[in-house]
Amino acid sequence: MNAHNIMEEIVQNHLDAILSSNPGICKCSKCIDAILSRVLSTLPAKYITTDSGAMYTLIDQVKVEQSSEILKELMKVLEDIKNHPLHQPMED
Question: What is the model's pTM?
Fold first, then answer.
């Protein structure tokens, strides 16, 4: 198995929850990719090379240990992108 940064999945899950409860945040691929890359750049990577059962146990552990840090970074990046949009708002 190749090494995998489980922080990507954890941050994505937190971001999905935030986006579903905040309709004012742009959900285009450009904005999502920018948010993920900026947040992941600020957090320590957590690489694993284990089988799937051990991976989910580790993911749960990291979620609990770093949940507040992940949410803090996500909110900081979302606020920055809200104040400095990556593109013009889309027309309906």
Answer: 0.77
- Identify the bridge partners of residue 4 per DSSP, sorted by sequence position: 48
Average per-residue pLDDT for the chain = 82
**Residues linked to residue 5 through DSSP beta bridges, in sequence order:** 47
**Interval 12-20 mean pLDDT:** 90
Residue boundaries of the structural domains of the chain: 4-80
CA angle 75, 81, 46 (to 5 degrees): 50
> Is pLDDT of 14 > 50?
yes
3 state DSSP class of 17: helix
Q: Please choose, from the candidates 44, 41, 48, the residue with its C-alpha nearest in 3D space to the C-alpha of residue 3.
A: 48
The tokens for 24 are 């004012």
The DSSP 8-state label assigned to residue 24 in this structure reads T
Amino acid in position 34: A
